[in-house]
Amino acid sequence: MELVEKGEMLPLMEEFYTIQGEGHHTGTAAYFIRVGGCDVGCHWCDVKESWNAETHPPTEISGIAENAARYSNTIVVTGGEPLTWNMSPLTHKLKEKGLRIHIETSGAYPLSGIWDWICLSPKKMKLPKEEVYKAANELKVIIYNKHDFQFAEEQAAKVSGNCELYLQPEWSRREKMTPEIVDYVMTNPKWKISLQTHKYLNIP
Fold first, then answer.
1. What was the pLDDT predicted at 46?
2. How far is CA 120 from CA 3, 107, 145, in A?
3. 121 annotated ligand-binding residue
4. Of 37, 30, 40, 95, whose CA–CA distance to 65 is shortest?
5. By the 8 A CB rule, do 104 and 83 touch?
6. Signal sequence: where (predicted)?
7. Beta strands 9-19 and 29-35: pairing type?
8. Which end of the chain is more exposed for a tag (fewer CB within 10 A), N or C?
9. pLDDT tens-digit readout, 145-158
10. Distance (Å, rounded) from C-alpha 129 to C-alpha 108?
11. For residues 29 and 174, what is the distance between their CA atoms, to the nearest angstrom?
12. Annotated binding-site residue? 6
């Protein structure tokens, strides 16, 4: 559909008001806009139902922005992989309402949109674009096994010196990997630990 290609409509999977559970803004009330469509294909993804954009109805961005403004001044655009789509029209609508806009992305597609905070969570299967590395405010690497620490360091070498660095245990492996992350951060204190606190709190 032409309007989806232009970013004037987006395959909206869900939108909800909750507490940010991960990374730098943990504990912050935020309105989440989850956009469908992702071909990065992480085997441990906890929202695989977001992958197929065709299962999520194309939704006008003006309505998405109106809903967001009712709940919070902090908006998190996530997916799926939101940069699959042109994010400029949506972020302009949100900015017109004076909202602070964050994105959570694998960085696998070109950067579009106006962002106050970019959380880059790179994946081995489809590495980020150079422009996303440079723009990232936060690097969040998911730790599934010991090999992921080396991947994390490779990714940290590509972001700016001002980018905050987080290691987060993959949820199904949290009991095994969290102690290893603790040890790693204590040895390498440029990193911080991120936990999926919303899952511990049993909130969306």
1. 74
2. 27, 6, 19
3. yes
4. 95
5. no
6. none
7. antiparallel
8. N
9. 999 999 999 999 99
10. 6
11. 24
12. no
Q: Which among 153, 124, 113, 120 is positioned nearest to 134, based on CA atoms?
A: 120
> Has 119 been labeled as part of a binding site?
no
The reported pLDDT for the residue numbered 47 is 82
Whether 70 has a binding-site annotation, put simply, is: no
Give the model's pLDDT for residue 39. Answer: 87
18 marked as binding residue = no
pLDDT at 1: 66
Taking the C-alpha atoms of residue 21 and residue 33, their distance in angstroms, rounded to an integer, is 15
User: Is 78 within any annotated ligand binding site?
Assistant: yes
Q: Which amino acid is at 8?
A: E
Query: Domains of the chain, with CATH numbers?
Result: 2-200 (3.20.20.70)
Give pTM, 2 decimals: 0.94
pLDDT at 186: 98
Backbone dihedral region for residue 122 (phi beyond 0: left; psi -120 to 50: alpha; all else: beta): beta
158 is in an annotated binding site: no
* Under-50 pLDDT residues of the chain: none
- Whole-angstrom Cα distance, residue 152 to residue 26? 20
Strand partners, 33: 15, 77
Give me the count of residues in the chain.
204
Q: How far apart are CA 52 and CA 125, in angstroms?
A: 18
- Is 122 annotated in a binding site? The answer is yes
* CA–CA gap between residue 199 and residue 110 (Å, rounded): 30
> What is d(CA 11, CA 4) in angstroms, rounded to the nearest whole number?
8
